[in-house]
Each structure stands twice: as structure tokens, then as C-alpha cells.
Write a structure and sequence with these properties.
The complex is a heterodimer. By secondary structure, chain A is mainly beta. Helices cover about 10% and strands about 40% of the residues of chain A. Chain A has a domain of about 80 residues: OB fold (Dihydrolipoamide Acetyltransferase, E2P). Chain A has two helices and eight strands, in the order H-H-E-E-E-E-E-E-E-E. A five-stranded antiparallel sheet of chain A has the order 6-5-4-7-8. In chain A, strands 2-1-3 form a three-stranded antiparallel sheet. Chain A is globular and about 50 Å long. The two termini of chain A are about 30 Å apart. Chain B has two domains: about 190 residues, Peroxisomal Thiolase, Chain A, domain 1 (3-Layer(aba) Sandwich), CATH 3.40.47; about 140 residues, Peroxisomal Thiolase, Chain A, domain 1, CATH 3.40.47. Chain B has twelve helices and 14 strands. A nine-stranded mixed sheet of chain B has the order 5-4-6-7-1-8-13-12-11, with helices on both faces. In chain B, helix 1 packs across helix 2 and helix 3 packs parallel to helix 4. The model of chain B has no long low-confidence stretch (mean pLDDT about 95). The chains are: A mainly beta, B alpha/beta. Chains A and B meet through helix 2, strand 7 and strand 8 of A and helix 3 and helix 4 of B. The structure holds zinc ion (ZN). Zinc ion binds next to loops of chain A. The site of zinc ion has 8 residues of chain A, from loops.
Chain lengths: ~130, ~350
């Protein structure tokens, strides 16, 4: 992914920046321009919302065949997390062996390195999770 | 109007390596080395942690404890000797990640292990001169490092990782900083040239004319100015490159073990460099009561010391410490790793294509 595309997604990745429908008060991640419940009525009524970063694991998988740049973290855990506010997010769970993660485990957001463009390129940062 | 510490927060990576496991690889008696240095374990950052991620975590935990809008922060300084970029500030990453951007000034600072306390002084300067020309009410000083010692070098037993942030201001102050003074000389005790992975040190400089002299000069100058003596402080905290030096200098200055021990964190997690003295100060603030006086002196090789005379205020009784981990809680979650995992995590293995 290019430097500019990462930069545009910075609020989403750094601060779980999503959106909130001011009609039905539902929060969405990632950000939406229209609420899937209120449809056209929500146009122009969506505002920025930063998720608090707390949630529960709803499912997870242990990755043994890593994505580029993740060799030193194998085996690592990828999980879908239901955020306290309601929406789902996919994220890595760090600082624990796979045996400690369960469906329903409480997690909190941490700020970590996501990837880097080699040793001379930019470093991308963003949210991951760890057990609370 | 007093100015000082409004909030603070710490972050220490979870992984730990023990001196005996380092010594085993290099044919040294690691346990004896650990004992000599008074270091029982050192923190090791995960492969996806660096001085920026640690700084962000410490800063977020600082803001969780106080109802200050991040947009009110007018300055952020991040002190580190392991900034992830040579050019591109860590401070702007922190600014964005805590929601303080864009209406603030920010910069990275560097002065070996005292870069974080220089940041505190810069913040105090801005806050104390705050007026309509310099409208800065809150400023954030961070010390954060993921330091490395060359494999097999004595520094490998101590160089660790951690970070701490102090939010300074003149409202909701939990501890006044009544005086800050420094002492700086050009002393070649420790250095790292641009592009080099590991630092070097001049053996004969590391003790007496460097660490001990700078801290002693600063502490004595501070106490002369305040008209105080060691008996007037509940706590004293000094930079801690190992667990021994701060005890030695503390006693030399006339402090008793009861005054020094609360600020001693290096024995549990090693030397967190720019965060070292400041984490000790955070642990003191975790326990301090209104009226307590603290003498805090940092040291950075190359060389200099910054001293702070701090008086704890009533506001600390209302301070929401419990919203973020206390220092002793934070360092209690160690995950032991052996030397081979350590080498992998610290990027000491040459990979395919490198
Ligand atoms: Zn809606």
C-alpha cells in the first residue's frame, strides 16, 4: 500500500476513527458516509467518532504462514473483535501465546508498528489489541 | 501561579530477559553480573514496538487520568536516543495518535538518557511564559527508548525499553516544580555515531567524572538554592544506568535508603534510558501524599544533568491515578524470553535479502 493511502487512513488506524449516525446513534468502523439503517435520512448527519478501543474476541485464527514483514512474530493471532460500541474490527492480538486467547476474551487497543517499507521506507503504525 | 505536573503515564514492554540467560551465551557469569549491576531483569520490546509506539502508549495513559482536551496541548517534546527515523519526528506521530494535532508545536529531543527531562524543562519554559503571545497552557514531555547494547558488551545487561509521559501545566497541578537547574559539560563518556547500531563508551569516564560528578553538582546546587538538605525530602530519585549507581550517589549526597528506594525501577526492568529517572519519579508520584518533597536528577552522557525540586499538592488526592496502570502494576506483567528470542525480537538476525 502506498505512502499516501496509508496517510489518508491515519485517523482510522491510529485512533480507531470511524463514524456515528446522529439519527440512530449507532457507531461504525470503518467510517461510513451513510448509515445502513437510516439510509438516505442519514446523509450529512454522520459525524466522526473515535472508538474507545475496548472489546471482546468473537473469533480468531493463528497464523503460521506470515504476511510479508511478520516473520519474526510467527505464530501470531488475528482476531475479529466486537468493539464495546458495537461494530466489528479485524486486528492482531499481541503479547500473548495463542493458547491464552479464547472467544469472549476482553481486549484493549494498543499502538504498534503494522508494517514498514523495507529498512529505508516509511513505517506504518496503528491499532492492534492485547488481552486485558 | 505555580506550574508543574498535571498528569503522567508509563508504558513498559512486556517481554523480559534475565542476566543469567545473557551471560550463558557469552561465557560470563550472568547471575553475578546481574547482582553486581543490581539488575534482576530487563524489558525487551516486541518486534512491533519502537520508541514511537511506546511514547504513544505512555501519552495516552497520561491523558486517560485527567480531563484535559488533547487539543489544549500546545507542545509535545519526545526525548529518545532510539527515535525510529533519523529524519521524521516521533513527536508528530504522538501528536496525531493522541488527537493533539494540528495546532501545536512539536519536536524530538536527544541527549542520551536525559532527553526526556530536557523536554520537561522546555515545557515548563513555555508554560511559565504563557501569555497572549505564547498561548500554551499544557505541554507534554515524553522520555521513550528501545536501547541496544552490542552483543556481549556489558551494556547488553542493562539497555532496555520503556516510556513515560508528563503533562505539565498550571491548572490541576498535582505536583509543583519549584526549581529546575542543570549542569552540562563536554564529556566523552558514551556516544553513538550516526548510522551505527550500537553505542560505544569510554571505560574510564563512565563513573566518576561523568555520572557521579554531574548528578552531585546538580543536586548540591539545587539544595543550596532552595536552602534545603537531604533530610527535607521524602523522596530522591536519580538516573539509573544500573541499580547500583543511584544508591551510591544518593548515599554520597546524604540520602537514606528509605528516600531512594521508591524511585529505583532499573532493578526490575533495566535502564530505560530517556525514561529511566522519569519512571522512578512516576513510581514516587504513584505513592506520594500532599506536602511530600521530591528531589529528582537525571543524567545524560555527553554529558549533563537536569534537577527538579518538586512539591506534591493537595490536588493529587483528586487525581484519577486508577484510570491507568501504576508503575509497579505495569512492570509486574513480565513474559520471560530466552536469548534466541531476544536476538530475533531485537532484529539482530540477518534475514534473507538483507
Ligand atoms: Zn442511523
Amino acid at each position: 500500500m502506498g505512502v499516501a493511502r496509508y496517510w489518508r487512513q491515519q485517523d482510522q488506524r491510529y485512533n480507531l476513527g470511524g463514524s456515528k449516525c446522529t439519527i440512530c446513534n449507532r457507531e461504525f468502523f470503518p467510517s461510513r458516509t451513510m448509515c445502513p439503517i437510516c439510509h438516505r435520512r442519514s446523509l450529512g448527519k454522520m459525524e466522526k467518532y473515535h472508538f474507545k478501543g475496548f472489546g471482546k474476541v468473537t473469533s480468531f485464527t493463528v497464523v503460521h504462514d506470515p504476511a510479508p514483514g511478520y516473520r519474526s512474530q510467527v505464530p501470531y493471532i488475528l482476531a475479529t473483535i466486537e468493539l464495546e460500541e458495537g461494530d466489528l474490527v479485524l486486528g492482531q492480538i499481541v503479547d500473548c501465546p495463542p493458547s491464552e486467547v479464547e472467544i469472549g476474551s476482553d481486549v484493549e487497543m494498543v499502538f504498534r508498528k503494522l508494517s514498514e517499507e523495507g529498512k529505508s521506507g516509511t513505517i506504518q503504525y496503528g491499532y492492534k489489541f492485547r488481552l486485558k | 501561579m505555580g506550574s508543574g505536573i498535571v498528569s503522567y503515564g508509563v508504558y513498559v514492554p512486556r517481554y523480559r530477559i534475565y542476566p543469567k540467560d545473557i551471560g550463558r551465551i557469552w561465557g560470563q557469569d550472568g547471575a553475578a553480573m546481574g547482582k553486581a549491576l543490581n539488575i534482576n531483569a530487563k524489558s525487551v520490546p516486541a518486534p512491533d514496538e519502537d520508541a514511537a509506539t511506546i511514547a504513544v502508549m505512555a501519552a495516552r495513559r497520561t491523558l486517560l487520568r485527567v480531563d484535559v482536551d488533547p487539543q489544549e496541548i500546545g507542545a509535545i517534546f519526545v526525548g529518545s536516543e532510539s527515535h525510529p527515523y533519523a529524519v521524521k519526528p516521533t513527536a508528530s506521530i504522538v501528536s496525531e495518535a493522541i488527537g493533539a494535532a494540528p495546532h501545536l508545536t512539536a519536536a524530538d529531543l536527544e541527549f542520551a538518557c536525559k532527553a526526556g527531562t530536557v523536554g520537561m524543562q522546555a515545557c515548563l519554559g513555555l508554560i511559565n511564559s504563557s501569555n497572549k503571545n505564547i498561548p500554551i497552557d499544557y505541554a507534554l514531555a515524553i522520555g521513550s527508548d528501545t536501547s541496544q547494547g552490542a552483543p556481549g558488551n556489558a551494556l547488553e545487561y542493562s539497555a532496555s525499553a520503556g516510556g513515560v509521559a508528563f503533562l505539565l501545566g498550571h491548572e490541576k497541578v498535582i505536583a509543583d516544580i519549584e526549581l529546575t537547574m542543570s549542569y552540562t559539560t563536554d564529556t566523552p563518556d558514551f556516544w553513538r555515531r550516526e548510522g551505527m547500531k550500537y553505542p560505544s563508551h569510554g571505560e574510564r569516564f563512565t563513573g566518576k567524572p561523568a555520572y557521579f560528578k554531574h548528578i552531585q553538582e546538580t543536586a548540591e546546587k539545587m539544595m543550596r538554592s532552595m536552602g534545603t538538605g537531604p533530610q527535607d525530602y521524602e523522596y530522591a530519585v536519580f538516573h539509573q544506568p544500573n541499580g547500583k549507581f543511584p544508591i551510591t550517589i544518593g548515599k554520597k549526597l546524604g540520602f537514606k535508603m528509605e528516600q531512594i528506594e521508591t524511585g529505583l525501577i532499573t532493578p526490575y526492568i533495566g535502564n530505560t534510558y530517556s525514561a529511566s529517572m522519569m519512571i522512578g519519579l512516576a513510581n514516587i508520584l504513584d505513592k506520594a501524599k500532599p506536602g511530600d518533597r521530591i528531589l529528582a536528577v537525571s543524567y545524560g552522557s555527553g554529558a549533563g544533568s537536569d534537577g527538579f525540586h518538586i512539591v506534591v499538592k493537595d490536588e493529587i488526592e483528586r487525581f484519577a491515578r486508577e484510570r491507568s496502570p501504576l508503575v509497579m502494576e505495569e512492570i509486574s506483567h513480565g513474559i520471560p524470553i530466552d536469548y534466541s528470542i531476544y536476538v530475533k525480537f531485537r532484529d539482530k538476525i540477518k534475514m534473507e535479502g538483507e
